[in-house]
Design goal:
Distance between the termini: 61 Å
Strand order of the largest sheet: 4-7-6-5
Structural class: alpha+beta
Radius of gyration: 29 Å
C-alpha cells in the first residue's frame, strides 16, 4: 500500500514522500505512530487537511536542509590510512567512519544519509554525497593522508640478517661482504628504533 510520510524515516524517505510499504507495516507501525498517513484515504477532506500540514512541514524541512547543506559543503573530514611499501592501503574509509568524524565535529548526520560513490582506499581528496532531504544532496570532502607502515623496514632488516648468516658460513671473501652488509643492517635497525621511539 502507499503511504505519505509525515516525518523523516531514513530507511523509507523524508517528510512528504509517497512510498509503497507492506500493509502490515503501515497499519501496525507507521500509521499508529503518526509517521505516515494512508495515501488512498477514503475521507478526502481529512487527507487534504493532513496533506496541507505535511506540505508545510516539508517546505520547512527543505529550508533547514539547504541551510545545513551550505555549512556541510565547507567541511573537510580528514583520515589517515596505513599504506604498505608497494602503495597498497590497509582498509578503507567507510560511511560509518565519516559519520563518526562529522559527529566529532558537531554535525549530526546518519550514516544512511552518506553515499560513498567509490570506495575510498587511497590518499587524496575524495567527495561523498550526503542526502539531507529528498531534494537536497550536498557533497562533503574527505581528505585521506597516507601513512607508511614500519612493517616493510622490519622485514628488510630480517632479510638482511638471514643473508648475513648464510654468508658467514661461506669463504672469508664472502665474510667480508657479510661485514659490509652488517654495517648497513645496523643503520636500518637504528632507523626502525627511531620509528618505534616516535
Amino acid at each position: 500500500m502507499e503511504v505519505i510520510l509525515r516525518e523523516d524515516f531514513l530507511s523509507l524517505g523524508y517528510v512528504g514522500d509517497t512510498v509503497r510499504v507492506k500493509r502490515g507495516f503501515a497499519r501496525n507501525f507507521l500509521i499508529p505512530r503518526g509517521i505516515a498517513v494512508e495515501a488512498s484515504s477514503t475521507n478526502d477532506r481529512v487527507l487534504k487537511h493532513k496533506l496541507s500540514s505535511i506540505v508545510a512541514k516539508r517546505i520547512k524541512k527543505k529550508a533547514e536542509a539547504e541551510s545545513f547543506g551550505k555549512i556541510l559543503e565547507q567541511v573537510i573530514v580528514e583520515f589517515t590510512l596505513k599504506v604498505g611499501a608497494k602503495g597498497k592501503s590497509f582498509g578503507s574509509v567507510t560511511s560509518k567512519d565519516i559519520e563518526a568524524s562529522l559527529k566529532a565535529l558537531g554535525y549530526e548526520v546518519d550514516r544512511r544519509q552518506i553515499r560513498v560513490v567509490e570506495a575510498i582506499r587511497g590518499p587524496g581528496v575524495h567527495k561523498v554525497e550526503v542526502k539531507l532531504h529528498s531534494e537536497v544532496v550536498v557533497p562533503v570532502q574527505v581528505k585521506v593522508i597516507a601513512v607508511q607502515t614500519a612493517a616493510p623496514v622490519a622485514a628488510e632488516g630480517e632479510e638482511s640478517g638471514k643473508k648475513r648468516k648464510s654468508r658467514k658460513k661461506g669463504s672469508e671473501a664472502e665474510g667480508a661482504e657479510g661485514a659490509s652488509d652488517e654495517s648497513v643492517s645496523v643503520e636500518v635497525s637504528s632507523e626502525s628504533e627511531a620509528d618505534s621511539a616516535e
